[in-house]
Design a protein that fits this description.
Blueprint lengths: L2 E11 L5 E12 L3 E5 L6 H9 L7 E3 L2 E4 L2 E2 L5 H7 L4 E4 L3 H4 L6 H12 L4 H14 L5 H5 L8 H13 L5 E5 L7 H18 L2 E6 L2 H7 L2 E6 L2 E7 L9 H8 L24
Parallel strand pairs: 3-9, 3-10, 7-8, 8-9
Antiparallel strand pairs: 1-2, 1-4, 1-5, 5-6, 10-11
Helix pairs in contact: 4-5, 4-7, 5-7, 7-8
Amino acid sequence: MMLEVRNLRVSYPQRDGRVIEAVRGVSFSLGRERLGIVGESGSGKSQTGRAIMGLSAAGACIEAEALSFDGQDLLQMNEVARRRLRGSRLAMILQDPKYSLNPVARIGAQIVETLRTHRRVSTQEARQRMLASLREVGIEDAERVARLYPHEVSGGMGQRVMIAMMTICEPELLIADEPTSALDVTVQLQVLAVLDRLVRERGMGLVFVSHDLRLVASFCDRILIMYAGRVVETLDSGRLHEARHPYTRGLLDCLPRLDAPRHPLPTLQREEAWRHA
């Protein structure tokens, strides 16, 4: 397996002595496949991805029985080695390019910087690979876009730029944290098509974090359902209709259906027991 996560816990001690548990005992393994992680806001999806990348907020306490990538223990790895791995073999696409891209640097320069941080290439080769990376994500006028600043591109274009930046070093594992949440449906499909092609052609492993259960079911091989920092159910995407946990069933019931209109839509019921099951 490429990635192994066993009993991962992420907590944040507070000044008043309380401890906020963001991730509580998450376990899964990942090969060269697509794994979807679904849950509502605050369920621990993004915190899980950030813990794998070593990008948790300051003060986070991260514990696990195993957290390894390609046999390397990520928890025992020093920061220099972790930085060398991050962006090179592991990469993460964040959900809003407005907050991820440097607003005062041109797009092309940011992508080149990412490449030259991890690969020894000449200035000319770096520029050529940067332009090729932009074209790979469907940006036809790559030279013009490379000269722009992030605020000069649309949300969909900005997300393509983020994908180009995070995949230019050809990572083996890509974590996509809600890469389509701020986009309209048409642009969502275009961005997903780009990710789909890159994953297939390069044989990458993908962790796809999303609120959209139906979207994840159509795009991923397996799905983890998270609630209150825990994984409550794991199933193959093709067997989503066989889900048994009441939380997963509740998420499915809340989806509108054109063939069976309902009014009002059911609301999701939550039980305290799900936090400890």
